[in-house]
Amino acid sequence: MNRDLERLQPYPFEKLNALKAQVSAPTDRAHIALSIGEPKHEPPAFVLQSLSDNLNRVVNYPSTKGLPELRETIAQWLTRRFKLNPGSVDAERHVLPVNGTREALFAFAQAVIDRTQNPLVVSPNPFYQIYEGAAFLAGADPYFLNCERENDYLPDFDSVPADVWQRCQLLFLCSPGNPTGTVVDTATLKKLIALADQYDFVIASDECYSELYFDEEQPPVGLLQACAELGRDDYRRCVVFHSLSKRSNLPGLRSGFVAGDAEVMEKFLLYRTYHGCAMPVTNQLASIAAWNDEAHVKANRDAYRAKFDAVLKILDGIVDVERPDASFYLWAKTGNMSDVEFAQRLFAEQNITVLPGRYIAREANGVNPGENHVRMALVATVEECVEAAERIKQFVTQQSS
Ligand SMILES: Cc1ncc(COP(=O)(O)O)c(C=O)c1O
Question: How many A from CA of 358 to the centre of ligand 1?
Answer without folding.
Answer: 19
